[in-house]
Amino acid sequence: MKTPQAVAMPQPPIAKSLTLAQCIIAYCEEKKYKIDRGVGEKNIIYVEGMYPEGKLNDDTFNVWNDARLVIEFKKGTPEILGAWEATTEPGRYYTLQPLNLSGVARIAFGQYQSWQVGTHNQADPHEALIQTGGSVTVYRDLNKDGLRIGDRIDTGYFGINQTWGADSPTSDIGASSAGSLVGRTREGHRQFMALCKQDPRYIKNRDYIFQATVIPGDDLFKRYPPTVAAKPVVTATTDNLSPGQLNSAIANAAINLRGMSTAEGPDGGNNACAWSINRVLQKAGIAPLGENPNYVPSLVDDLKGGRGQLIQGNEAKPGDLVIAHGEAHIGIGLDQGCATVLSNSSSRARFVWESDTDFDGSYGGSSTIYRLLK
Taxonomically, which superkingdom (predicted)? Predict the structure, then answer.
């Protein structure tokens, strides 16, 4: 009598380790949403009922409990560049006192290509993404219950902008949203806008229409639960940091990124000096510089416009920004007096060139030095 052979039992599939960014992209792909994977292209994602650090919550009405994210692909892998407290829903004030007789607007989950850079709010004007590029679909909360269920659907141009909430308390949206997609803090919103404006499509065309996607956190985690703990995203405000602390953060980030390839920058790294400086600032958790973040004169305009202070050479410290004669190049000082400056090497397409203050005489004159203030 033959000994019966053991029957091999089917093994459960091995779960693939997924980061939060990968889960969000997988969810969007399942929904047939467009994903931008080009170099430097930004994906704006709002996750309702999820905190910025990637934890679900109960999506309580009138609370800042949603997440605004910017995702970019690096070597084929999605990474979260910025994550901020936000709301995708109107607050109590406009729910009870709607501007539209049909009820306050609550955006429908989905993807819309509808926003252009502009100015929001006459009372508190600030740069924002304005709904001038396309329609959006909303639910009209006529019964004022703070829910989408049973509400009438409306599609059109309703001023559903991407704005700031003027540092409202975490527990109270109040009048900060009448249906717009709103980041809670001013500084976080500035960081968000700076990242969006680094998108090469915007740099090429200032009338570029940005796309944003709004998804429900509970359904995201049900279908694609992250299995890898989210990496902390440095998006904290720099308002409370002194210039000295900013200098230290910039210098440390520059040293950490020394040797970084700049091939993803303009002209394959040949003209990536401003680009590399903004990568250092991003690493340090500081909002990028410049209306055009890849153009030195644009960075200098920001420094002159209030974000920087002109420094004499004998006062220069590590972390100060050194601008070549004619605003032709930019680097970061590594020592007292900025006698050693680290910047992009055009010929090597790497952040490795160590020169003197005047970039070894390459630009025909003396450099100027600025200290970042915010």
Answer: Bacteria
Q: Residue 36, class by beta-carbon neighbours within 10 Å (0-12 exposed, 13-18 middle, 19+ buried)?
A: middle
The residue-averaged pLDDT of 19-48 equals 97
Strands (E), the chain: 43-48, 66-74, 77-87, 104-107, 110-120, 126-130, 136-141, 152-156, 162-164, 181-183, 210-216, 308-311, 321-323, 330-333, 341-345, 350-355, 368-372
Arithmetic mean of pLDDT, 32-37: 98
Burial of 65 (0-12, 13-18, 19+ CB in 10 A): buried
Q: How far apart are CA 116 and CA 86, in angstroms?
A: 19
Which domains are present in the chain?
A: 20-223 (no CATH), 243-372 (3.90.1720.10)
Q: What 3-state class would DSSP assign to 283?
A: helix
What average pLDDT does the structure give for the chain? 90
Q: What is the pLDDT of residues 102-149, one digit of tens each?
A: 999 999 999 999 999 999 987 889 999 999 999 999 999 999 999 999
Give how far Cα 279 sits from Cα of 81, 185, 210, Å: 11, 22, 22
54-85 pLDDT, tens per residue?
Answer: 999 999 999 999 999 999 999 999 999 999 99
pTM over 0.85: no
In contact, 354 and 342? CB cutoff 8 Å = yes
Going 253 to 296 to 324 to 247, the CA torsion angle's sign is negative
- Cα 68 to Cα 49: distance, rounded to the nearest angstrom: 11
Question: What is the sign, positive or negative, of the torsion defined by CA atoms of 163, 166, 167, 168?
Answer: negative
Q: What share of the chain is helix, strand, coil (3-state, %, to 5)?
A: 25, 25, 50
The closest alpha carbon to 352, from 342, 363, 339, belongs to 342
Widest distance between CA atoms in the chain? 97
Give CA–CA dist 323/68, Å, rounded.
34
